[in-house]
Design a protein that fits this description.
The protein is mostly helical. The chain is elongated and about 160 Å long. It has a two-stranded antiparallel sheet with strand order 1-2. α3 packs antiparallel against α4. The protein contains 37 helices and 2 strands. It has a domain of 74 residues. The N terminus and C terminus are likely disordered. Its main location: nucleus. InterPro entries: HAT, HAT_Syf1_CNRKL1_C, Syf1-like, TPR-like_helical_dom_sf. One of its GO terms (biological process) is spliceosomal complex assembly. This is Crooked neck-like protein 1. It comes from Pomatostomus ruficeps (Chestnut-crowned babbler).
């Protein structure tokens, strides 16, 4: 590096006389990063540290005589005055100047500086405080009083001046002067803490009557001027009276507070404090009355603390009934919140009603029921009304069973039936309950009128059944016949109705009428349960011992269906008919069934028929018939078939069992060929096994 610098220096010196050339920038050969990296933050920090190191410490100045002292004072005063002259509004310069003069015991000069500063900014609180503190520190009491008077006159809303002034007078033992300052302060109607400071001041000197008068003035300001309309001020006043054992005065304060706030601005804290005061005085009945009065009037969401304290009180001093009352009140509050959040939550209404029914009077229960049924479902769909309708049912049952009010019960039923949109849907349960209620009231015409109206407006199976059952209990069989006729006109496909109608005629002894009803029923083009109807008709003929008609019914039924159960039932009927030719007839039915089932695709049904036939032959047949049925029994084989998914793709193979009947084998030569192939394969396997075992061949030859 040194050589390079010397060469460059020589070149520049040689060309100094001529035209100056711009030196070329040397190229950096090593562009690798340095091992120690230095950040901008580190550079700034080091510069700051070195700057502090380079600053020389101020010289130590020792003043040895008066002239040097005066010279020092002159220089300092000139500096302070220059700072003030540069910026008069910076109060800190004035305060430093005054404090420096104070440190030199130049009180008069410091006082002059503070006065000059006040002329600049008399609203500065710190300036007044420093000025007064200087006077108090130097025991200039009258000057301090003068400054405090000027401060509270100039800035009466600065509470700090008043606190400092009263504290100074109290520390000086001037109680009357401090009281006078408090009185001047109270004329400005200050904040709450100022009043309490005045009260605490009087209490420190055992002036209870004066403290009470201050409380009265404070409460009067609260009531008339509404400066501090807060509950805690009344509570503090009452506790003050209680603390000094003026219990009658304390109770009167609480009563005045309750009267002042009224029912519009009720606060739970006031009633909790009032109740605790009475509890301390052992007035438990008063406590209970206060809690109940407050709970009945304060909104439930604002009375959590009240509930809690009432519960604790009842557990401490109440009986079981009182504890149950408070628990019921809490649950009522919870249910009120639930139904307020969602009026259509009918489960919450049910729980609420169950609670009020168990604990309150009838008027309250009716009020809650009316509120509940007023929440009609907004959509006229039956699924939305299923829970709602039970509110009406419970209401009616309560009026009838608990309140014993039959007129109100009838009104509830009628109002509910008028509310229902019968053109879209109805509730048969409601009509039937109303009719049963009228029957209990021995008012049969009204019950019949209600059921007749229901059938006319909105006919339903349940309504017809209920009406018919009512007339059956009353033994009005002609009315039952008419109702069954109307019912079957309304729902001719209902097999149960046909069966019940026929059973009624059978009970009444009109067999021909019952048979005619059955004939009409099986002649209907559409039935919901035809097998039940046919079975009932067949059982009816069997009960009447009309076996030929029963056989005809079976034949007619077999013309409509070839179901295996019909054939088995027909055969069992012939077996149980009790005639001499019952076994041949039964065997003939099985023969016909077997022939008819050959074309059936469901082989399991054919197997079921043959199983039933074999059980019959095992019990009543001969060896020949048993051997014959054994030859008819199928062979069970396992097969595989290809499966396809819904999209048509290959889904693999599936194993299943199939039946091969001997009768079908005789008619199909392919099956005979398959059997012969199986026999040949079996023989081949046996010959191969013999070839694999020569010892066995030697033993067989020796044998």
């Amino acid at each position: 590096r040194g050589g390079a610098r010397a060469q460059s220096g020589g070149k520049m010196a040689s060309t100094a006389a001529g035209k100056q050339r711009i030196p070329k920038v040397a190229k950096v050969k090593n562009k690798a990063p340095a091992e120690v990296q230095i950040t901008a933050e580190q550079l700034l920090r080091e510069a700051k540290e070195r700057e502090l190191e380079l600053l020389p410490p101020p010289p130590q100045q020792k003043i040895t005589d008066v002239e040097e002292l005066n010279d020092y004072k002159l220089r300092k005063r000139k500096t302070f005055e220059d700072n003030i002259r540069k910026n008069r509004t910076v109060i800190s310069n004035w305060i430093k100047y005054a404090q420096w003069e104070e440190s030199l015991k130049e009180i008069q000069r410091a006082r002059s500086i503070y006065e000059r500063a006040l002329d600049v900014d008399y609203r500065n609180v710190t300036l007044w405080l420093k000025y007064a503190e200087m006077e108090m520190k130097n025991r200039q009491v009258n000057h301090a009083r003068n400054i405090w008077d000027r401060a509270i006159t100039t800035l009466p809303r600065v509470n700090q001046f008043w606190y400092k002034y009263t504290y100074m007078e109290e520390m000086l033992g001037n109680v009357a002067g401090s009281r006078q300052v408090f009185e001047r302060w109270m004329e400005w109607q200050p904040e709450e803490q100022a009043w309490h400071s005045y009260i605490n001041f009087e209490l420190r000197y055992k002036e209870v009557d004066r403290a009470r008068s201050i409380y009265e003035r404070y409460i009067l300001f609260t009531v008339l001027v509404l400066v501090h309309p807060d509950v805690k001020n009344w509570i503090k006043y009452a506790r003050f009276e209680e603390k000094h054992s003026y219990f009658a005065h304390a109770r009167k304060v609480y009563e005045r507070a309750v009267e002042f706030f009224g029912e519009e601005h009720m606060d739970e804290h006031l009633y909790v404090a009032f109740a605790k005061f009475e509890e301390n005085q052992k007035e438990f009945e008063r406590v209970r009355v206060i809690y109940k009065y407050a709970l009945d009037r304060i909104p439930k969401q604002d009375a959590q603390n009240l509930f809690k304290n009432y519960t604790i009180f009842e557990k401490k001093f109440g009986d079981r009934r009182g504890i149950e009352d408070i628990i019921v009140s809490k649950r009522r509050f919870q249910y009120e919140e639930e139904v307020k959040a969602n009026p259509h939550n009918y489960d919450a209404w049910f729980d609420y009603l169950r609670l009020v029914e168990s604990d309150t009077d009838a008027e309250t229960v009716r009020e809650v029921y009316e509120r509940a049924i007023a929440n009609v479902p907004p959509i006229q769909e039956k699924r939305h009304w299923k829970r709602y309708i039970y509110l009406w049912i419970n209401y009616a049952l309560y009026e009838e069973l608990e309140a014993k009010a039959s007129k109100r019960t009838r009104q509830v039923y009628q109002a509910c039936l008028e509310l229902l949109p019968h053109k879209k849907f109805t509730f048969a349960k409601m009509w039937l309950l109303y009719a049963q209620f009228e029957i209990r009231q021995k008012n049969l015409p009204l019950a019949r009128r209600a059921l007749g109206t229901s059938i006319g407006k909105c006919p339903k199976n349940k309504l017809f059944k209920g009406y018919i059952e009512l007339e059956l209990q009353l033994r009005e069989f002609d009315r039952c016949r008419k109702l069954y006729e109307k019912f079957l006109e309304f729902a001719p496909e209902n097999c149960t109705s046909w069966i019940k109608f026929a059973e009624l005629e059978t009970i009444l002894g009109d067999i021909d009428r019952a048979r005619a009803i059955y004939e009409l029923a099986i002649g209907q083009p559409r039935l919901d349960m035809p097998e039940v109807l046919w079975k009932s008709y067949i059982d009816f003929e069997i009960e009447q011992e009309e076996y030929e008609k029963t056989r005809n019914l079976y034949r007619r039924l077999l013309q409509r269906t070839q179901h295996v159960k019909v054939w088995i039932s027909f055969a069992q009927f012939e077996l149980s008919a009790g005639q001499e030719e019952r076994l041949p007839r039964c065997r003939q039915i099985y023969e016909e069934a077997n022939k008819a089932m050959r074309s059936c695709e469901e082989k399991e049904e054919r197997v079921m028929l043959l199983e039933s036939w074999r059980s019959f032959e095992d019990e009543f047949g001969t060896d020949a018939t048993k051997e014959r049925i054994d030859k008819l029994m199928p062979e069970k084989i396992k097969k595989r078939r290809k499966l396809q998914a819904e999209d048509g793709s290959d889904a693999g193979w599936e194993e299943y069992y199939d039946y091969i009947f001997p009768e079908d084998t005789a008619n199909q030569p392919n099956l005979k060929l398959l059997a012969m192939a199986k026999l040949w394969k079996k023989q081949q396997q046996e010959s191969e096994a013999a070839a694999m075992d020569p010892d066995k061949d030697i033993d067989e030859s020796q044998t």
